Write the structure tokens for this entry.
Amino acid sequence: MTTIYAFGSNGSGQLALGHKEDVSVPEKVHTQERILFDSVNQLKAGGNHTLLLAANSIYCSGIVNHELSEWSGIGDKFVQMKFSNDSGCTLPIVSCAASWEAILFVQQDKYGRSSMLYTVGTGNHGELGHGPKVTKLTKAQLVEEFPPFGLEIKDLAACVSHAVAVLSNGDVYGWGNGRKGQIGETKQIVYRPRKITGLGFKIVRAVCGREFTCLFGDPEVGHLVVLGSDKWNLITAAPKIIPGWKDIGAGWGSIHVLMNNGNLVSWGRNDHGQLAPTGLPKISQIAVGSEHTLGLTVDGNVLAWGWGEHGNCGPVTSGGDVERRWNIITASGLTEPSVRFTGVGAGCATSWIFAKFPDT
């Protein structure tokens, strides 16, 4: 049986702990209905809300904004979001993402294809994807005429005010705030998904930071490109190629690449210790938040480093930072030697640990 623990910023109840106080020692999350945490395959976070994708459904905690009526009871517990298509039939949700005040998700069509993109919430910079007149949606709405016929959405990423989708043919589309070039050459707000051109290779994964996007090709070859602002040397410090990567993540101003050999390569902003510290143990999983990172080691320990003012890097910091070192995280009440950590998650000063208990 898997249980999720959370710690960090919690002023809107986004940690789903049953209260709205910041915590620095991980506590067990609360749910309004039973969730099979073993089935969770995505955890995404917006400004003050958290999404869990479990068993093809989305569960939300915190506040997306104050005017949503698609569901009720969102607060300090995870609540299932109820979505249906025009015929009233609920179809499987296969991926999700979050901007500052919006939720994006991909639903399968009746043929089992990942071809329906929905958005809901607030998007003042085009991140809802429905044109310049749509800045707020109180009910999830299908983004029309996307993706192109016959293609599926294979990866979906978002940050504060822009989003990108990777398609089954290796193309990538972006929308939202593009003023820094983070969704292509036209440096402006893009109100509907638009193809990013001139990349030179097929894209398989994407991550978004505050004012940039990093696109990755085949991990065996290692092609990558960073679009957008070069603040913090995000573009100039990027490796030409990085073959052998296993997973990728981005903070607001940093990029992190987990390699197959357990090493973590990172570049970008480091004024709060956001980048991988020297001597880091071998890592099997990463989760990158706004200005901090969690790593699950191959030995099963959870490490945290970076900006941790809200407790999201654990209780021991230097003026709010965990810099040039890491904290080893333990969860409240977890003293059984048979319990093992199996995953990590991170958001806007929020952190998450997945713990596996022996079946009884």
